[in-house]
Amino acid sequence: MGKFSQRPSPTLYSSTSLGVLPRLHKFTLEDYRKYERERDKIFASPSGRAALMAGGMTWRLAQGIVLERLVIKGPSKDVRRIGAVYGTPDVLSILVDDGLHVTAEDIIHGTYFVQTGLGSQTSKVSWWP
């Protein structure tokens, strides 16, 4: 394994997941379609492979969209740039694999921030738990 010029880290998609919505927002079919488009962008990236390996609800949502052969094939070619690092801080003994940033998980689960009406406070709501 070669040395890294910079430690890789999973892609940060958005700090607000699918966005911040007004307090009384009524979800529509268009909201759900937007969610599907954003989710599918992640599934088409190296993070999609990581989603399929994640287990739980994330795995369930990736199943049938992300090809299982991508998991078997091993880490993507972008792993040295956007992978997740596993192991010790010693550069000689780390392992790198495709990673899934918490912001990507939030988008996969359909997470929005909804204003509560109490100053800048928001609550998280999602299509999936």
UniProtKB/TrEMBL annotation:
Q: Domain of life here?
A: Eukaryota
What is the name of the protein in this document?
Uncharacterized protein
Source species, please?
A: Crucibulum laeve
